[in-house]
Amino acid sequence: MKLLPDLQLLKRAKEDSLIAEELIPELSLNLNAEPYYEFIYEHLFLEGTICAEDLLKEIRIVANNQLASKLHAVALNNEIIKKVEFQDLWNYKLRFIYMFITEYKAFVEEKEAQMNCKQLTEIHLL
After folding, report:
1. Residue 35 in contact with residue 68, Cβ under 8 Å?
2. CA 94, CA 85: separation in Å to the nearest integer?
């Protein structure tokens, strides 16, 4: 576990406002930028809601238990959390699961709006 280099990387990423797709693969866990990681990094960490240590702890729990795809499915359809195969998500005591489930769709919409705005700005600059 390379905690210190990951913490240094997160500090630099926050200073440079790196997006999740640029940062997550660089962490020692060798992960892809899954929606849950993107959400807690961009929406919670970069905005100052959580610290680097909390971010890394949560990412490790999700990665080690291969929960990323399950969490994404629940965020897209909140009702499936009631199904038996998703009930184990609560056992991991993820700190940000409720925020992810309730805020993910708005987070995605905001990111899409920002990308559209950026693209329109680039077109006008040409």
Report:
1. yes
2. 17
